[in-house]
Amino acid sequence: MVVRPAATTVVKASPPTMSDVARKAGVSTMTVSRALRDGASIASSTREKIMRAVDELGYVLDQSAGSLSSKRTGFVAALVPSLNNSNFADTARGLTDALQGSGLQVLLGYTDYLIEKEEELIESMLRRRPEAIVVTGGRHTARGRKLLENAGIPVIETWDLPPRPVRHVVGFSNAEAAEALVRHLHQKGYRKIGFIGGTSNRDTRGADRRLGYERAMGALGLKDTRIISFGTPPISMKQGGEALTRLLEQWPDVEAAICVSDLSAFGALMECRRRNIAVPERIAIAGFGDFEISSCSYPAITTVSVNCYDIGRRTGELLLRAIEGERARKPIAGETVITDYEVIARESA
Amino acid sequence: MVVRPAATTVVKASPPTMSDVARKAGVSTMTVSRALRDGASIASSTREKIMRAVDELGYVLDQSAGSLSSKRTGFVAALVPSLNNSNFADTARGLTDALQGSGLQVLLGYTDYLIEKEEELIESMLRRRPEAIVVTGGRHTARGRKLLENAGIPVIETWDLPPRPVRHVVGFSNAEAAEALVRHLHQKGYRKIGFIGGTSNRDTRGADRRLGYERAMGALGLKDTRIISFGTPPISMKQGGEALTRLLEQWPDVEAAICVSDLSAFGALMECRRRNIAVPERIAIAGFGDFEISSCSYPAITTVSVNCYDIGRRTGELLLRAIEGERARKPIAGETVITDYEVIARESA
DNA sequence: CTGTTAGCGCATTCAC
DNA sequence: GTGAATGCGCTAACAG
Question: Beta-strand (E) ranges in chain B?
């Protein structure tokens, strides 16, 4: 039972406003407003008075009121499939870094790889009037896409090369990257190459990688594809292990396994160790994404490095130009920035 | 008197506002406002008219204007050290889940394990007037702490049991959890137990774990601590491997290594495999956090599970009660929720 | 360098 | 069930 003190106690009223500060400092609110932003010309004595008042009152600028007036909210929305994935975390970091000092903050949301959840997030972000929005991938719900198209702010799709982009793109072809990996394994002498991925197209980048695998196999004249679909994307390490077991059961002759991501590749690799299956002698394993785990595991895992941080950084740079364009009422044309990927040959293949 | 451009012009001016919708639907803005929130009583014919106008105009509610008026911003700020850490990602997910349907959104920021960056983030979050703020850990800059104390909103510190909490706490004692791990190893017969962690106290939870290690060793009468500090926290897998090398060089008699997190433990484990050092026969390895990697690696890694998701979920639940209290002008008393941890014995020890 | 005026787009409060 | 007036806290634009 909590007993509240009598009403005579200082009632913690609403937080101080700019006029409280102005009154205390003996100036107008406009002067306070100027003092609190940088760049304005203020007598240093006035500024000091104001800062003292700010400190004493514990005043914190109310940006939501400010942006209503200035039409600048000072943030960009960024939607990623998952936080628990160092690839997207790196992209988020690159984006944040690129926006350093621009006065723009990144507000992150995660979609759980679901375009329905993406749609919800797009809407709730737009309600807060971001100055730009970054999404992962080029596949959206119809309404999500419409929201993006009509948002009236720069839109950047990342991690993909959508056939029909909303506007700007910073990404790479997941299919192509997977093809490169198949060719690499082929060059190393592997022929009976399998693919391990999730059961649905929920992870569109994963689906594209499978597509690339199939295309490359076809192009190399390797008709027999060996595909294991197991688990809801994104598939976990453990699921990677189980999928490998199935792959070996179903096609005992398989020589190499390409996994949809490094995490499942790691799971597959550990399953091999556990069952005393020699990697890469009995079966080679390759992943995707160049997570730290792939360079650090033993044997180290052959993978495709995709420059996640760079995707974020270049997204940020493009964003800044696009926002500048909007502010100057001279929107820039849609741009597509294609980022690098690279097959990293390691011990597992 | 401001003259709005004639409705016939197609100039893509600023995005449509509620009055545009109201005019198009032939009602007042107030009716639109009601129709767009749930629960209000509106004639269904009116609502339909309004929804049609909303659709045609592609109108999206401006929440920043709304919250200026209603004093409810509809979001809570959550600061985590890193996104690229499945533990904190799980906590974020738990928090988000707990807030489902409450009309509150989580806005994430990451501090990079730096309390200076945390301070900046606290301030920029507060400028947007969150309805509550969640921080990770109990250590803040002086100004950061003051900002939290004066924020006038519920504050929850997580992942820790600060000696002097700002207000609410949802966490556990990292030191105690590390002690439990030491006792577990002791019980298994290990005596010469080492500890691998980062070089500074930047990661305060890591520092607490080292403290717990030292305390437990002392309590068990094991005077000789063997501590390797290597790399800026949070230390990586690779650094875990290098640290293990140093540990073995410096104390060749060491029988077990406790690593500050599962990631460094994994790095240490892989280093052993690479160098043909038998785990756990020659040296046992234990981690912290129960990341997926620890259950999936071979050998699987002994660790401490810390219920990350639960920390988030219970933080969310506490948050909802606290915000309810604020809205009813009956602030709830400071609470401390202690979450479970558990030593998970696996093959590596 | 500083103040005044006039909204930003919405929700609250009270009418009807 | 709906509308009118009013103000949330701040800043743009201009005046001085």
Answer: 75-80, 105-110, 133-136, 155-158, 168-171, 193-197, 226-229, 256-259, 284-286, 303-305, 336-338, 342-344
Give the residue nearest to nucleotide D9 (CA to C1'): A65
Q: Which nucleotide is nearest to B25 (CA to C1')?
A: D2
Q: pLDDT tens digit string along B83-96?
A: 888 899 999 999 99
Checking each nucleotide's C1' against the CA of A18, the nearest proves to be D9
Question: Which run of H or E residues covers position A228?
Answer: strand A226-229
Q: Give, in Å, how far the C1' of D6 lies from the CA of B69.
A: 11
CA-based nearest residue to B348, from B275, B274, B262, B289:
B262
Query: Does residue A305 approach strand C to less than 7 Å at its CB?
Result: no
**To which CATH superfamily is domain A2-55+69-172+309-344 assigned?**
Response regulator (3.40.50.2300)
Task: Give the C-alpha distances (Å, rounded to integers) separating B313 from A98, B325, B337.
Answer: 32, 19, 11
**Sheet of A226-229, strand order:** A226-229, A193-197, A256-259, A284-286
Q: What is the CA radius of gyration of chain A?
A: 26
Query: In chain A, which residue's Cα lies nearest the Cα of B80?
Result: A83
What whole-number distance in Å separates Cα of residue B339 and Cα of residue B308?
A: 9
Nucleotides of C under 7 A from a protein CB: 1-13
pLDDT at B9 over 70: no
CB of A285 within 8 A of CB of A257? yes
CA–CA dist B45, B43 (Å, integer): 5
Task: Supply the pTM of this predicted model.
Answer: 0.90
Q: Which two tokens stand for residue B311?
A: 């920390």
Binary contact (B292, A61; C-beta < 8 A): no
Q: What CATH architecture does domain B174-305 belong to?
A: 3-Layer(aba) Sandwich (3.40)
CA distances from A284 to A300, B75, B275 (A): 11, 48, 21
List the end-to-end C-alpha distance of chain B, in Å, as a whole number: 78
Which H or E run includes A338? strand A336-338
Pick the range with the lowest mean pLDDT from A4-18, A32-46, A68-82, A94-108: A4-18
pLDDT score, position A200: 87
d(CA B92, CA B22): 39
Q: What residue segments make up the domains of chain B, in order of their start?
A: 2-55+69-172+309-344, 174-305
Out of B152, B236, B332, the one facing A12 most closely (by C-beta) is B152
pLDDT one-digit tens code per residue, B291-321:
999 999 999 999 999 999 999 999 999 999 9
Count contacts between A and B (CB, < 8 Å). 117
Contacting residues 126-145/B vs strand C (CB within 7 A): none
The Cα angle at residue B135 between residues B133 and B140, in degrees rounded to 5: 115
Q: What is the average per-residue pLDDT within A186-214?
A: 95
